[in-house]
Amino acid sequence: MKCYNSILTATALLFGVIIYAQGVVPETYINPLDIDYTYMVYNSNKNISYRSGADPAVIEFRGEYYMFVTRSFGYWHSTDLINWEFIRPEQWFFEGSNAPTAFNYKDSLVYFAGDPAGYGSILYTDDPKSGKWTPTASITKNIQDSELFIDDDGKTYLYWGSSNVHPLRVKMLNKDDRFLETGVEKELFNLVEEEHGWERFGENNFHPTLKEGYMEGASMTKHDGKYYLQYAAPGTQFNVYADAAYIGETPLGPFTYMKNNPMSFKPGGFTNGAGHGITMKQTNGQYWHFATMALASNSHWERRLAMFPTYFDEEGLMYTITSYGDYPLFGPDHPTQAGQHSGWMLLSYKGKVTVSSSQMQVKKSTSTYDDYDITEMPLEKNSEGEIISKLLTDESPKSFWVAEANDDEQWVEIEMLSPRNIYAFQLNFHDEESGIYTRTEGLRHRFTVEVSEDGEHWETVVDRSKSYKDAPNAYITLNQPVQGKYVRYNNIEVPGNNLALSEIRIFGKGLGKKPAKVKGFEVSREEDRRDASFTWNSVKGAQGYNIRWGIAPDKLYQSWLIYDENEHFMRNLDRDTEYYFSVESFNENGISERSEIIRVK
């Protein structure tokens, strides 16, 4: 399959116009996924309360889908890969599931494993909707980040590893005898940071003292007779957390490093990270990669989930499309562009924000020294005496605003830079001293959203005032687009003691022109061949730029989205690989034509 390119982007834009002309809204979704993430017990001794979802294991079983997530006290069920309902199992062992694995064996049984203590009891059921599972006795030990894989011949393999020292390993199990070990165990491969820049530890692949990344999250996909053993690096808290693959002719290898690695990588944009995931096949044959995104605001272990379309090209190289991966994407049932950018652009960036009250506003980012850079913003008011919050439209999920209460007197108003056609909203709530440390039922987000063209006359376009939905990353699409310049969020009730938000994102289409093609694009590969620097001429009216690169002109599978800047530095290249680069500009009106492709030896 040829590389996803600008023709597809143009088609997506055209397709969106045609669909709206017919009065039918295309089904879309957004990353991070809009599900009711579980509150974690990590850091509860410090009174740090936050939700997290990480290390997803997603399977198709009898035409439906099940998603298992680290320490979630259960799992989720879906019929369409967009709408997920939580299932709390009857037995106790799911409370301890860490980096879970699941496998659908011939549509007869679902097998599950995952234990933070490292003891590998494998559970099974023929009815996962019921929440009833049968455990086997513990069959192995010292297992972390396991992956259970049963081949077509019934031979069973357990892959595992989570270390900055040790390699991934595999052992064979006997599926027909309580999954006991057969005695076949093998070391497979380790990180090679001196060759693979993206495997280096740290935010943006840099740390002043630690050089070795963590290798973890093994996952196996069999496609066209080949075995793609995926792994994550360099650390779950970083923007460069990614998945890569080695390819083998047998489940035991030998395995060869895939030359277009990493195969799932999202270092830029609003929400970063695309590692420690699983690749599964939809009933229609479309592959999807579910991955972990690094929110990392309250804690480095505060994470979210993402879903990206995945393909195998004519060389058998596995790749995932993450470009504009935190913008609205076409749903899994789209006939030609499932998971690809819908053409709806970000309308709210740098919009003027006023709020009802402010207990605190904190600007936060991940430091290269394993901690945070934190600035508490001073209270600021406009000329009319209204409280300002610049953090709610800055495209940073780590920064946040906290209101003085959690009631219907709290609100947020955004004035966009110009009138736009609004199609969708994403409300990213923040956990600030919520006091919740486990899976809690009955949580709900109740609010309304209004739109105005003049800031005086308002129309309610979203009414969740009586909703029972728990939606910490609420994604809401409108039945028809609405034109407006102002958007107002009216709070009623959310989990926690205070209303707190990290970002309100508004999507749709501006009424002006998309930006011009980027000129003056230059790439300089550094003396350390894993590094490269980029410069280009600023484009008038551009919000930001999207750098694309890959191992061939038609394999620009990687991308890095940045706002405002016209220069960039990356440390994620493979030392001995030749690359091709291009860049495009974008704004609320659309995406420019790509620049000419530059070859860099």
UniProtKB/TrEMBL annotation:
Residues the record marks as site: Important for catalytic activity, responsible for pKa modulation of the active site Glu and correct orientation of both the proton donor and substrate: D145
Molecular-function GO terms, alphabetical: hydrolase activity, hydrolyzing O-glycosyl compounds
Keyword ATP-binding tagged: no
InterPro entries assigned: FA58C (IPR000421), FN3_dom (IPR003961), FN3_sf (IPR036116), Galactose-bd-like_sf (IPR008979), Glyco_hydro_43 (IPR006710), Glyco_hydro_beta-prop_sf (IPR023296), Glycosyl_Hydrlase_43 (IPR051795), Ig-like_fold (IPR013783)
Membrane spanning residue stretches: none
UniProt KW keywords: Glycosidase, Hydrolase
Residue span(s) of domain F5/8 type C: 355-509
GO terms of biological process kind: carbohydrate metabolic process
Domain of life: Bacteria
Domain Fibronectin type-III: 514-601
Family: Belongs to the glycosyl hydrolase 43 family.
Protein name: Family 43 glycosylhydrolase
Native species: Gillisia hiemivivida
